[in-house]
Amino acid sequence: MTSALTPRTGVSATAPESDPRPRGAAPGRGRRVLVAVLPWATTVALLAVAEILSRTGALPEEVPPVTEVIAAGWQLVPTATFAASLGATLAQVGIGLLIGVVVGVSAGLALGAVPVLYRLTHHVLDFLRFIPAVVYLPVLVLLMGATPRTAFLLAALGTVWPMLFQAYYGVAGISTVLADTARVFGLRPHQRLAHVVLPAVSPFVATGLRISASHALVVVVAVQLITAIPGLGRDIARYAANAVYPQMYALVAVVGLVGVVLNAVLGAVERRRLHWHSSYRETWT
Amino acid sequence: MTAAEAVGGRGRAAARVLVPLLVPAAIVVVWWFASAASTSPYFPPLSRILATFAEHWLGDRVVSDVLPSLGRMLAGFGAAVVVGVGLGALLGRLPLLAHALNPVLQFGRALPATALVPVSIAVLGIGNVPKILLIAFVTVFPVMLNTIDGVRGVDPVLEDVTRSYRLTRRQRLFRVQLPAAAPQVVAGVRVALGVAFVMMIVTELIAATNGIGFVTLIAQQSFRVSLMWSGMLLLGILGVAVNVLFALAERRLLRWYSHARED
């Protein structure tokens, strides 16, 4: 950085941004309220702009006004069809996650506990982890047809690799001092699993779960779109095919909200685990 | 392994390389021989899958399907990286604007990308451009949000130093802020790459006319099982190759960072 000492010619270039506060904003409580309201006010304003743009015909016909989308959603959400599709989607994601977590975590723990196993298989695992779950879609449809089973098995395939590697990293990261201490104190294997291994692994698993859940949702929606398995993805595809656009967008928004809620819930779980983890570390080292 | 260790020195070194190759080799060998006499319509012999692979995926389909698939993915992904880093750096410098847009950005990131495929077909139609735009749109969020976080997380002391040394805004951005944010930016780009690859496949499974995913799905629907398996094999190999290339690029790009951390 030879130019570091060259004097700057423009004088006022950085003056405004040295203070991150907006000019004219009231300090103290008023500012805090403003800052809290701002994101939602902006969101509403953006939706209003979209509304005006589509009402005035600036947007293509395929983008209906926001109010029409909201109205369509309002009508759609209380129906039994919607409840069935939402339930089917959540069930497919949930079952897939459950299978992926159980299989992935147990395999990861085994690999962490038996180093030979890891050495023997890590090339295969490193290969398989990079193959996205949708790649398996054709063969699963071929073997099992367009059934919900295909959807949750694909979701499980998307879940199993992150879980396996997270669990493995968790076990591999256990300090030898901790492991030896547990052994010296005569903890039995099941006690070591419950009091040493699982607590050490749980924050890693929590992170893996958050990553996997969004994978699983992406995969399940894709399967529903492509194979017409019951679910929100299938409904979106049907409304799109019949050019019923307000309903299509309403369902896309619902799927987005499912993603947001899933993220928020699992993010909160992860923070709790991590919080616990860091305090644990501070006590021990 | 214990026997190999007893040999010591060279034997141990050889074992370190060979032992991890045992299982991959065994899988291929078992697959080859177990499927050799297969008459199952679902599981053709591996030899036939590989022959189909060579005939299709190393033949005409390179130009008609493989390159269009990869081209769409790279075009969308490349655009997303440029736009995502640009917007992310901007929003990282304008915290209030980033705060104002936060719900929109978080929604964009959490929305499962595949749900937008019918929307993109409805609004933009089919063909290359809609697919590229969709891939770019869904991959821009992880890049942008990570860049915002990275730029915002630059050490305030470093910021003060660059200011008192009177670096220009441009110098601060390219010499200090973006390099400091690079580890997080790269993490976002890695997520984006995974999403781009999935979207490359999924956009070809719905209302498409060419591409690896398209050929593979049509092969399944028309019961050309060897072609389906060979397409899956190609997608698997590409998925691994893309990630390996990215890991190499990442190591080069962030070499200074891992050095700095070791010190």
From TrEMBL, chain A:
Q: Which family does it belong to?
A: Belongs to the binding-protein-dependent transport system permease family.
The entry's localization annotation reads:
Cell membrane
**TM segment ranges:** 33-53, 95-118, 130-147, 167-186, 207-229, 249-269
Q: How does it sit in the membrane?
A: Multi-pass membrane protein
Locate the region Disordered.
Answer: 1-27
Q: What is this protein called?
A: ABC transmembrane type-1 domain-containing protein
Q: Which UniProt keywords apply?
A: Cell membrane, Membrane, Transmembrane, Transmembrane helix, Transport
Does the record bear Transport in its keywords? yes
Please give the organism: Pseudonocardia adelaidensis
Keyword flag Transmembrane helix: yes
UniProtKB/TrEMBL annotation, chain B:
PROSITE patterns linked to this entry? ABC_TM1
Cellular compartment(s): Cell membrane
Q: Does the keyword Thylakoid apply?
A: no
Superkingdom, natural source: Bacteria
Q: Which InterPro entries match?
A: MetI-like, MetI-like_sf
Write the record's keywords in alphabetical order, separated by commas: Cell membrane, Membrane, Transmembrane, Transmembrane helix, Transport
Question: One Pfam annotation, family name?
Answer: BPD_transp_1
Q: Which residues form the ABC transmembrane type-1 domain?
A: 66-246
- UniProt topology in membrane: Multi-pass membrane protein
Similarity comment text for this entry? Belongs to the binding-protein-dependent transport system permease family.
Its recorded name reads ABC transporter permease
